[in-house]
From TrEMBL:
Catalytic residues identified in the record: C118 (proton donor)
Assigned keywords, A-Z: Cell cycle, Cell division, Cell shape, Cell wall biogenesis/degradation, Cytoplasm, Peptidoglycan synthesis, Pyruvate, Transferase
Protein name: UDP-N-acetylglucosamine 1-carboxyvinyltransferase
Record-listed phosphoenolpyruvate binding positions: K22, N23
Matching CDD domains: UdpNAET
């Protein structure tokens, strides 16, 4: 079992380049299933989740060709044969469920294992299924899998999502791209990753308008062809480095970060008294790591404060002057990091969906575990500034979503190593 050992107290200095967004590349790779000719994706991040989605679509018959550096991949879905996604892979990563929309659109059926619940909440798929039914698919659910079929093909329709679910919006966009006629998605998710998916699908010949707003209009087309696409920078990875530098103290330029995707995070950092400068090619953060002011945050769908930054921001509030509140409205159980941060001395109480954080001058090192991806990132941010040494275990969570996390932090001057126990 591997773990990270972090000696707190080093200032962070220099430049760190943000990789392409995990949450954009996953639906886009699922989207390559729709094309009858090859697609090429550039600047693919080296992440566990990318490996998993590639295995899923390879198991469906897609041919994958990687360049030497493994950051450009050609996906040839002309050989798409199977319509059943294996349990072992769907269980590993919920985003595997995003192959259902493309499979339904292209093959008229899909059988996918039930993506189980996970640490951060129950995460049902009812909104996806309701929308597929509205598009004319028949759904059969057993304990183990969901089977959707549309032998007559999908038909465009008006869909109102009860919640602006990111995954449901993506799945419906992909299914509707090749449905007959026009689909309107109301109360759609507005995340930048949705816009990136729509940009890719439009380059493949789809007709999608309104992505990035809460009403998306899709005119179905009979066929899509492959396209070349570079995925957007990862706003959550960028935000994590902003917090790391704000907590540890330092002067860090987060290269390739897009300020317009990070408005709530930047606004809250400024409210906390951290100097943040937005530039064309990235965001600079300057901090002494001291005198951070308490701030309240509440997670919301985009353009609100991202739930995927909640854990890292909570870590920041543990060393702020005063009391902060952190309210999680997107997932019902996304406070798993609280118990771990408490091991490092943090004073946090939980009242239902709100955490009340009593800031203190300094955390201390401890032996902790990443309970989910962003919890792991939050613990690393906390460890960088804590007194003494911290060991972070269960690194498979962090590996899902941070490319070269240790190397990037080391190059900024952090005292962090990965060791095999
Ligand atoms: C791979 C990917 O892009 N993951 C992101 C995506 O996850 P994901 O697409 O799973 O998140 P959703 O936006 O769908 O989920 C938001 C909320 O809606 C609920 N819900 C969702 C679908 C459904 O059918 N029924 C239902 O009740 C979920 O349980 C959750 O409470 O958006 C989340 C919210 O920004 C992020 O935290 C994840 O990092
Ligand atoms: C929750 C996350 O991802 P996923 O939806 O893939 O679990 C995340 O990226 O923080």
């Amino acid at each position: 079992m591997e773990k990270l050992i972090i000696q707190g107290g080093n200032r962070l200095e220099g430049r760190v380049r943000v990789s392409s967004a995990k949450n954009a590349v996953l639906p886009i790779i699922a989207g390559t299933l729709l094309a009858s000719t090859p697609s090429k994706l550039l600047e693919i991040p080296n992440l566990e989740d990318v490996g998993t989605i590639c295995q899923v679509i390879e198991s469906l018959g897609v041919k994958i060709t990687r360049n030497k550096a493994d950051d450009e991949i050609i996906f040839d879905a002309s050989t798409l044969t199977a319509t059943e996604a294996p349990y072992e892979l769907v269980r590993k990563m919920r985003a595997s469920f995003l192959v259902m929309g493309p499979l339904l659109a292209r093959k008229g059926e899909a059988k996918i294992s039930m993506p189980g619940g996970c640490a951060i909440g129950a995460r049902p798929i009812d909104l996806h299924l309701k929308a597929f039914e509205a598009l004319g698919a028949k759904i059969e659910i057993t304990e183990d899998y969901v089977y959707a079929h549309a032998p007559e093909g999908l038909k465009g329709t008006q869909i109102y999502l009860d919640f602006p679910s990111v995954g449901a919006t993506e799945n419906v966009i992909m299914a509707a791209s090749m449905a007959e006629g026009k689909t309107v998605i109301e109360n759609a998710a507005e995340e930048p990753e949705i816009v990136d998916l729509a940009t890719f699908l439009n380059a493949m010949g789809a007709n999608i308008r309104g992505a990035g707003t809460n009403v998306i209009r899709i005119e179905g087309v009979p066929q899509l062809h492959g396209a070349i696409h570079t995925v957007i920078p990862d706003r959550i990875e960028a935000g994590t480095y902003l917090i790391a530098a704000a907590m540890a103290g330092g002067d860090v330029f987060v290269e390739n970060a897009l300020p317009e995707h990070l408005k709530p995070v930047v606004a809250k950092l400024k409210e906390a008294g951290v100097t943040v400068e937005e530039e064309i090619d990235g965001i600079r953060v300057i901090s002494t790591g001291k005198g951070i002011k308490a701030v309240d945050i509440k997670t919301l769908p985009y353009p609100g404060f991202p739930t995927d930054m909640q854990a890292q921001f909570m870590a920041l509030t543990t060393i702020a002057e005063g009391t902060s509140t952190v309210t999680e409205t997107v997932f019902e159980n996304r406070f798993m990091h609280v118990a771990e941060l408490r091991k490092m001395g943090a004073h946090i109480d939980i009242d239902n969906r709100q955490a009340i954080v009593e800031g203190m001058p300094r955390l201390h090192g401890a032996v902790v575990n990443a309970t989910d991806l962003r919890a792991g990132a939050a613990l690393v941010c906390a460890a960088l500034t804590a007194e003494g040494s911290t060991e972070v275990g269960r690194l498979h969570h962090i590996d899902r979503g941070y490319e070269d996390f240790v190397g990037k932090l080391q190059r900024l001057g952090a005292d962090i190593v990965r060791v095999d126990e």
